[in-house]
Design a protein that fits this description.
Layout (H helix, E strand, L loop, with lengths): L1 H10 L5 E5 L5 H6 L7 H16 L5 E6 L1 H10 L10 H25 L4 E7 L2 E4 L5 H14 L1 H4 L8 E5 L3 E5 L2 E2 L15 H11 L6 E5 L10 H17 L4 E4 L21 E3 L6 E3 L1 H12 L5
Parallel strand pairs: 1-2, 2-3, 3-5, 4-6, 5-8, 8-9
Antiparallel strand pairs: 6-7, 10-11
């Protein structure tokens, strides 16, 4: 099935970015092992090797793991996502296993063909101090950013050909508390701060890797903010490129309304509305706006 999908995409001139793990795991793996198990990384590397053998150059970029720290936080710290285990110590082990899994998967895919491109997808928020000159606000902001970005990425620097970035919002820190202005927010209450995307991109410049924005989107059922959101985010991308960031691509999240693990179907991220009962697909106005940007490869600033 997947091979047919990839062949179809290639026949239409599309480049394919394939994620090997996006939150869900096989039932047999979850029951017998799970991501806290010592064998998790070796099993994942075998899976990555098999995928590279089967799909080969039908895949332009292999992305090993999507948002590893989001998964471990929601599953092992908050206990909301499966396997719903509130265990910070286990969360640390899972974090380590994700790092090892990526490294081993990277090596496995390169064994199949050293020219295959391999990366990882990291969800990164920007953190800014609420009080510009307050030492605590600045220290907490720096620490939080380090934890969600460099803490995970630095050990992987030698084992990734590119960085996939998922950016959604920024947190403004007053001490240890986020006090976001929330002047403009998504339906999920996420503060829309396009400047944060530019800040994150500039911070990733030090890795000297190509960067792809693999997710950037807005829950906006009425489609009132999405056009302006896309314009502002792409403007931030343009500004980062002008400052030397090697940004190679941008993926809006998402084409269709999707299922959010905790919230379900109600947050509407799609450029295309998906009617749950009939499965009818109805393009929103923002779809045509974004299609024009893609066709012209430009945005009016």
């Amino acid at each position: 099935h997947y091979k047919k999908v990839l062949q179809s995409a290639k026949s239409k001139g599309l480049k394919t970015f394939v994620t090997l793990h996006h939150f869900t795991s096989p039932l047999w793996f979850s029951k017998k092992y799970g991501w806290g198990h010592p064998k998790a990384s070796s099993l994942f590397s075998k899976y990555a090797y098999k995928c590279a053998q089967e799909f080969g150059d039908l895949v332009d970029v292999y992305l090993t793991i999507n948002e590893p720290q989001v998964y471990l936080y929601m599953s092992y710290v908050k206990g909301i996502w499966p396997p719903s285990k509130k265990n910070p110590f286990l969360a640390f082990i899972v974090n380590t296993n994700f790092m090892l899994s990526h490294i081993r998967a990277y090596k496995s895919i390169k064994k199949v063909n050293k020219n295959y491109k391999v990366g990882i997808v990291k969800n990164i928020m920007w953190y800014k101090p609420h009080r510009k000159n307050n030492l605590l606000d600045k220290a907490v902001s720096k620490f939080m950013y380090f934890f969600v970005a460099d803490f995970f990425l630095l050990p992987l620097k030698r084992y990734t050909d590119l960085i996939g970035l998922n950016y959604y919002f920024t947190n403004e820190m007053k001490g240890f508390k986020a006090v976001n202005p929330n002047d403009v927010v998504s339906d999920l209450g996420w503060w829309i701060y396009p400047k944060g995307l530019e800040k994150v991109l500039l911070s990733l410049k030090k890795y000297n890797k190509p960067i792809y924005i693999t997710e950037n989107g807005l829950a906006d059922e009425q489609d009132k903010l999405r056009k302006d959101f896309i314009k502002q985010m792409l403007t931030s991308c343009y500004q980062a490129i002008n400052k030397g960031v090697n940004l190679k691509g941008y993926f809006y999240w998402s084409l269709l309304d999707n299922y959010e693990w905790h919230e379900g179907f109600w947050p509407k991220f799609g450029l295309i509305s998906l009617e749950k009962d009939t499965l009818n697909r109805i393009p929103r106005k923002s779809f045509f706006y974004y299609a024009k940007i893609c066709k012209n490869n430009s945005v009016d600033l």
